[in-house]
Every structure is written in C-alpha cells, then in structure tokens.
Here is the input.
Amino acid sequence: MNILIKNGTILPMNVADDMPKYFKGNLGIEGNKISFVSAEQSDVDNFRAKHHENCKIIDASGCIVMPGLINTHTHIAMTLLRGISDDVPLMEWLNDHIWPIEAHMGYNEILIGAKLGALEMLKGGTTTFVDMYPYEEAVAEASEEAGIRAIVSPCAMDFRMPHFEEDWRAVQKRFSNSKLVSMMIGVHAIYTCSPDNMKHAMELSEQLSTGIHIHHSETQDEEKTVRERYNANPTEHLVNVGLIKRPTLAAHCVYMSDNDIKTFAENNVSVAYNPQSNMKLASGIAPIAKMLDSGVNVSIGTDGASSNNDLDMWDEMRTASLLQKVNSMNPCVLTAYQVLQMATVNGAKAIGREGELGILQEGALADVILVNFEKPHLYPHTNLISELVYSCHASDVETVIVDGNIVVENRKCTTMDETKVCTDAQNTIDRLLNQ
Amino acid sequence: MNILIKNGTILPMNVADDMPKYFKGNLGIEGNKISFVSAEQSDVDNFRAKHHENCKIIDASGCIVMPGLINTHTHIAMTLLRGISDDVPLMEWLNDHIWPIEAHMGYNEILIGAKLGALEMLKGGTTTFVDMYPYEEAVAEASEEAGIRAIVSPCAMDFRMPHFEEDWRAVQKRFSNSKLVSMMIGVHAIYTCSPDNMKHAMELSEQLSTGIHIHHSETQDEEKTVRERYNANPTEHLVNVGLIKRPTLAAHCVYMSDNDIKTFAENNVSVAYNPQSNMKLASGIAPIAKMLDSGVNVSIGTDGASSNNDLDMWDEMRTASLLQKVNSMNPCVLTAYQVLQMATVNGAKAIGREGELGILQEGALADVILVNFEKPHLYPHTNLISELVYSCHASDVETVIVDGNIVVENRKCTTMDETKVCTDAQNTIDRLLNQ
Here is the structure.
C-alpha cells in the first residue's frame, strides 16, 4: 500500500541538536519504505500523480508525525503476570510469585501473553521491541500476527541450554525470511551463564551475524556474586570472557564505575536504560548522565510489565529524564530531545539498524506514528519536544504504521481482536493462578 | 439531581489495611451527597423506588468506582506556562522565563490559565485541588465555572502584602457561600515572608477558621538561606514563629531531619509530596517513607504544570511510589494502597475534610470517578489496586462527578467548551511571549 500523510507536524529525529527539530509538512510511504519527508507541496503533488487512486491519505492536522518508538529491553509475555505481585522484596517476588507461575508457562501461555504485550505496545506507539524470554518462537509468532517489529533473543542460561538451542533454531527456521522478526542472541546474565556457555552464545551470534542481548549489573547482589565468583566486576568479566567484542546490548547497567563506562564507550556497547523497573524493584539508579557524557549509546527499555507495570515508553521517557535530573541534582541533564533520541535513533543504533529505523527519512523503513496534540493536557503549544516527553501519554497516539502497514487507526488495533486478546490473557492467568 | 451508579467495582477507600479493598456493587447520590454504597440489590431497589424517573442511571460495568483524587499542592494558572522552559537551572528558569511572563499575568490571564488547568484535572479524575498563586479570586472563578472543588490560598509574601489583603478579601466576599470554593491562607515560604507577615497570616487563618498552606524546605538553597537568616532550619523556624500550631499543609518538605519529621508528626502538620516537580527541578527527594513511619499525614500534589509538566495525579502516584522505593532501596515502601490513600483520604485530612471527601460512604460529598478498566494496558485483572497505581492513566477516567454534578461524561467535559478553553490559552501565551 502507498500512504500519504498530510498536513502534520513532522519530527524526523534526523537533525543535529542545533537544527530546527520539527516543521509543518507531509510524508509519503511506498510499500514498506518512506519515499519522501518534506514541507514542499510539489512533493505531495508528485506522489499523488504517481499513485493516483492507489494511495491512502491520512490527514495529520493537529498531530505530530514521528518515528515509532523502540523499546530495547522487555519480556512481553510477562504482561500476563501484570499485577500478580508488587511491593515485596525481589527474592520473595521471584521465588513466591513470578517463578512458580512461569514454571507453568509453555508455548501457548507465552503466545497469549505476548499478544497482549504487543497490543499494548502498538497502541502506545512502540513499533519495535527487543525481547528476551523462553519460547521466543511464540513471541515472534505473536509479533507477526500483531504486525509489530520484534528482535527476539533466545537466551543462553546454564540450566536450560538445550532449550536455548531448540529455541534459536526454531526462530531461525521459521522467521529467517520475516520482514518483522529478527534475532539477537540472549545471554541471560553473568550470574546465570558460565563463561563456556557465554562463549557458545558468542560464537553463535558471530555465525548468525547478530548481536548479544544481556542483563548486566542490575543489582548490588549481582555485583557481589560476580565479584566473588570471578574476581572481577560484571563489566570486567565481559571483557575477560571477550563478549564485549561482539555487538552488545546491555540492559540495566545500574552499577557501573567510571572505568566500566569508559570500557562500554570504547567497545561501542549499547545500554538499555530501564528506570521504572529499577525503581520499582529498588535495584538502584543507573549513572546514565555520565554514560551520555562519555559517549555511550543509551536507549530505553520498559523491562517486563510485571516489574513496571506497563510497556509504556512515554512514561518511561519521562521517568528516564526526571530520575537522572534528581540523581545528578542537575535539571539540565537528559534534556527532552536527548530522551526522544534515546527512544528512537539510539534504539535503532542499539540493534544495528541505524538510518533504517527510529528516523523519518527517504529510504528508511515506514515505522511511523501520529500523536494527537489537540488535547487539554498538551495545551498550550510552546515547545512540542518538551510536551512529547513531559506531558504526552500512550493514549495520545492515534495512528501507528509498521513496515508500511497501518496497525492502529483512530486508536483501534487493525490486526488483532482487542477483546479476544484481553479475554484470552484473563482466562490464562486465572487458570495459572488457580493451579 | 439523583444518580444511581450500578454494577461497578467499588473502591471506597474507607477500610482498614487488612480489610477487603473493593467489591462489586452500587452507589447512590442524592443532591450533592452519597446516600448509599453497597453490594445489596435491595439498596438499589429502594433508591429507584424513592426517586422513580428523577434519577440518572450510570452503568459502571468494567469500571472502578472510587473517590475523586485530591491534588494538595498546585498552581493551576501556571498551566498557561507549560513547556515555556525546561531542562535549565532553577534560577535561570525563574529569572529568564517564568518571572518575566508572570509579570504580565493579571486577573484575566490567570483566569484563562486556571480554566485550562481545571479542565485537565477534571478529565484526569482530580475533583479537589489546593492552589496558591496571585489572584486566587480568578482561580476560584475558573473553578466554579469548571465545577471542580478548589481550596484557594491567597498568599502572604513580603513584597506584595497589599495584594494579599485584597485577594483574600475578594475571595472571602465573593465565595464565602460557595459549595465548591473554600480558602486556606497561603504563606509563600519562609525565605519570602518575614516573621511579622507570617504572624499576620496566622492571625487571619485563625480568624477565618482555616489552615495555612506553605512551601516548605523545597531546596538546599532554601535550607541554607533560612539557617543564615534565622539561625534555625526551616522546620525549627516554623516552631519558633508558632505557625506550626495552626493547621498546616506544607508542600515539598525535601530537606527534613528525623527531628523535623518528629516535630511535624507531633503537631499534625500535613505534607504535600510533589515527586515529579522535585525531580524535574532537581530539588531532591523528600524522605516520605520515614514520614509515613513516623505517622505524618502525607498527601500528593503535582505542583504547577510548568515544572511537572502536567496536573496528572496518576503519573504522580506512580512516581511517588517508585521514587521512594529506589531512594530507600526497599521495594516494600509506599505500597500501591498507601499511595491511593495519600491521593484520597490523606488529601482530605490535609485540608481538614476527613470523612467528607476522598472517601465513598453514606453522607460524604459526592465526588466520585469512574475508571474504565477494559483497556489492554490494564489487563489481565489480578490486583486492581496495583493496576490503579502502577498502570492507570488519566485518560482511563471515563466519568467524573463533583458535588453531585456530572462534570465529565464519556471523557467529555460537560461544563466547559474544551476547544475554547484550549484556544484561549494558546492565544494568551502567544501574546505574552511576543510582548
């Protein structure tokens, strides 16, 4: 399909900091790519002349037109577990609530949870996400059905290496020609994956020409365990094992020394910052302002909905900025535009898709969202960048296009039956909780 | 009007911590008061028999029915200034952006800003707010028009005492019989109000039988200034001047020693916790978990929309809890239910309206909201309390009743022309910025 988006306020996210950041204009989509982004009426006329009737026209008056958001660390099947346990210590949360339920979650339960997560993300303007969970094949299946772009990470972990092998092979076999699904190799974390298994994952990532996705330095306990076991801190351990030489996306990164940050910058490791999960589980505050100063590529993740408790990137952007300001006692750090970059272009870079995703420009993939600005909580309009980050909500997203397909229109998902997705999730968690 | 709310999930907020917190049931409103809250069909039948046709029926299936939220510290006219300056140091923010515009804001500009703020709050389920700003008469006028409950605080401040006198007299004269507007006496802050002017405010609050609303210990600078000027910290100064003996609502309270907290608890001072503003302006983190432990009554405020950047109590509740968890490195502090109490019953206590507001029970004022739970981001339903605090948004509020009047129905404000309120605000800020 060809799509012409007219009369919007275009926020391309492809400009340097000192350039104008948005303008009144139009955007054309041919197939799954953006064919033009411009303020010129002549481009609109040419596009219409070329496509005649074979062109869907979307009036974007009163809307910001921007790249879809990229959530670089989550476990979307855990949306099924939203609210089953909160406000308890981490180990009680895992041992008494999360793990006992997860033990009963197989392919089908994960498929159902993933559909709910995909639906929530699409309706909130997230068009790409990076996942890690058992049965990533099911997450990939849900994503194709929903029409969301997924980077799934079958995950190496000492106690389930055979499952890791099965899972990545299944994803590879079934989705290697997918337009929406691609793969990273997951390494659950240093404390759950031996150096040998880590090396196996590294070889595999090299063989498949993909990056590594890992939980890194999330808690004080993890720091302590790794140091006791390997006589090195988590970042030093990644260096020692050599994993840092692979393209790496490291989630959390709460306990990072200045040296660790330097190591990440020098090795082009990307970070997925998960502020709300780190706050809710009382893990700590990642030194993101310092990382940005040192040139580390920082993106944003929501983590799973059971420790957040949603997959809302708007909430996460706002908290990302506010938390760093108070933590640095400096209101200037993590400006609104920096945070938007983290949720778009930096996210694309973190998954090796710079220039292709997270940006509106000719030739980029057509992952585009329309945010309705005609709402009282967004008035008056004085600085749209600031409004997007500090005042906008997932519910302000009106239209979502992924890979050239309209997947949300007037806030309704076009690819899935919303009621059925919600009901299936409810029935499934009710059954699991009553087991 | 009489209103029957049927088939909802009722969250009365009047139960002890270990009691069931919500149930399927119904709620009746006669005039401006709640006449029953119950799970019994006989109560519904009696209500209908009594009122026959003279009764509006609202089907609350799929909705939580709960008390309207109480925002205990804000400056709603500053909604006009949303986004005009962000990500800059506090003094630059004030000197170069906020104050130059405020210098041109008179009655009419404040009226227009206050209408926008009232509209945003109502649509997000806030039914009562405590304000402080020049021309509180204008804020009161806007609130009556919007149909929101307002506690306005004309404000003593050294450089504008004549205006303070004019303002409280105007409010007193015009709104003393209002069903929606009442008054507290504002003391801007210790560093802007001499002990003599503070004493005058205290006498006035006694004469008018109302409480005092003050900015308290918001920044390190304030702490330092007060100590240098009075050889006491801010809380000690309140004790020394005697203000603490009046019913007091203290906003911010970021720099509070254990002794200060004890003093507040002993003197029944209520606190308005403003986490997002304190984060955005990098003021610091208030020791709220300690205050709760010590028995201080803590409520929640958004502060003004220029330092937040919204008046959204859902966002504020979520941040309130998450920030204390990470600050205490304890995921158990500020549970979801405690935070809901802060935004309802504790807010009512902070303004001396316990049992009358922030609660659903027979005889309480009919300030009631319906939150639509049939949304993907709120599924599955396993713990509604947790979903309200950790996953809900202002846009999930469907219906809002204040003092027995339906002011928001199906997310549309019934009392004001939303487009006009937004357009007036836009025109006004455009004019002010171009001066």
